[in-house]
Amino acid sequence: MCSHFDRDEIRRLGKRFKKLDLDSSGSLSVDEFLSLPGLRHNPPVQRVVQVFDRDGNGKEVDFEEFVVGTSQCSVQGDQEEKLRLAFDIYTDVDRDGYISNGELFQVLKVMVGDNVQDWQLQQIVDKTTLTLDTDGDGRISFEEFSAAVGGLELHKKLVVVV
């Protein structure tokens, strides 16, 4: 298992994992993730599960996946790791390494709900894609995403203390 945590931190994560594992199945479902106060009202929680889920079942996260995923948000996690996590959770739905116009629309729609009409949201998505897509291929790569959000110090906000 590759993580930034020491033995004591992994032990504490194990205790936290067991508390979250309400059905004692050995893995965490979306509903169990929702029991975390920080994720309770966070629309992309399903995406967190999908991104943490390394074996690809998309429905549950076992302890090793939990440690590796949480490690990306640790104090020791580097900026690129955290930006990659944000890229994967918030935008790269099909995991092809790019954010398409449709993916950006889909993710923003989840976040804004019915507060913005679809045609207005599509205009925002189109303008964002045009602005960030520096190589002109019609989609946003991780490098283009990083260049756009790197200065926002997003990596300092994606921190989990164990």
Give the end-to-end Cα distance, rounded to a whole number of Å.
Answer: 17 Å
Strand order of the largest sheet: 1-2
The Rg value, from CA coordinates, equals: 17 Å
Poorly predicted spans: none
**Major sheet attributes:** 2 strands, antiparallel
Reading the helices and strands in chain order gives HEHHEHHEHHEH
Q: How many helices?
A: 8
Q: Percent of residues in helical segments? A: 40-55%
What's the arrangement of secondary structure elements?
Blueprint: H1 7-20, E1 27-29, H2 30-33, H3 45-52, E2 60-62, H4 63-71, H5 79-90, E3 98-99, H6 101-112, H7 118-132, E4 140-141, H8 142-149
Antiparallel strand pairs: 1-2, 3-4
Helix pairs in contact: 3-5, 5-8, 6-7
